[in-house]
Amino acid sequence: MLKTATLDQIAYELYKAEKNVYEVTKFVDQYPELTVETAYDIQDKLIELKCQHEQTTISGRKLGLTSKAKQQMMGVHEPSYGVLLANMELNAQLPISLKSLIHPKIEPEIAFVFKQDLLGPVITVAQVLEATDYIVPAMEIIDSRYLNFNFTLPDVIADNSSSSRYIVSSHKYAVDEVDLVNMGCIFKQNNEIFATSTAGSIMGHPARAIAWMANKLIARGQHILAGDVVLSGALTGSATMHAGDCFTVSFDGIESLTVRVDQ
Ligand code: OOG
Ligand code: MG
User: Hey, how many other C-beta atoms are within 10 angstroms of the C-beta on 175?
Assistant: First the structure.
């Protein structure tokens, strides 16, 4: 068992690495006894630190490693989740600055925005869909605080599942307007196809990933709440971001979302 002081220390190391834009070595090397449950305790402490010091609040949740493409890319074969904070949201109309980021990557996502709390005791896929206000095309910028994006499952969980920034489209769709299993996705970097996928690549249906997380949260006394934005996980591998790059995600039959990186 790791001591509370050690968990506080790890959370603080991760907080400083993000704030001062540097990489740290993964903590499992130093603390092989770090478990998934303990890693979520560290994540909670990290979020508390960020809310306090950055005067921000929770705006939603994110899932990570929910598609085979991402699991294979990162060598971690189970999903994780994390917290989205209001100050992580970027406006799609404005160029993205890489200045405060370590080694950012970007990935296509489907975001669900909730109109009802998911309180449980057990959440089903049908309940996730009922509680959803709308879905929107989205992109997530991930920026692992670990050296070379190298981590194990407990490491990435402690690091709030690599979350850094997110962008959501202003075009909203009801869950029954889109086919959340077969809808195709094309992710482009500088107008060339980077990768393709389908909505069902996320655990068969993105709402299944959200139900999985909702039940994990309930077990920890936490909940998806009305107004929350939830990223269901990247549908493809992530792309390294360079100055001047442009990224577009297009889903079948709905408006695409494009973002540009500052020169
Ligand atoms: C972990 C976060 C993964 C996703 O959508 O799969 C993630 C990572 O790849 O660094 O956000
Ligand atoms: Mg993601």
Answer: 17
Instruction: Name the residue of 43, 142, 145 whose CB sits within 8 Å of the most ligand 1 atoms, as the mutation to test its pocket.
Output: 142
* Residue-level pLDDT at 128: 98
Q: Is beta strand 58-64 parallel, antiparallel or unpaired with respect to 229-231?
A: parallel
Per-residue CA distances from 20 to 12, 15, 47, 259 (Å): 12, 9, 17, 25
CA distances from 166 to 84, 132, 138, 147 (A): 8, 19, 7, 22
Question: Considering only CA atoms, which of 188, 208, 184 is closest in space to residue 198?
Answer: 184
Q: Is 157 in the pocket of ligand 1 (CB under 6 A)?
A: no
Quote the CA–CA distance of 8 and 28 in Å, as a whole number: 15
Q: Which CATH architecture has domain 4-260?
A: Alpha-Beta Complex (3.90)
Q: For residue 1, is pLDDT > 90?
A: no
pLDDT single digits (tens) 79-123: 999 999 999 999 999 999 999 999 999 999 999 999 999 999 999
The predicted model scores a pTM of: 0.98
How is the chain split into domains, by residue range?
4-260
Rg (CA), the chain: 17
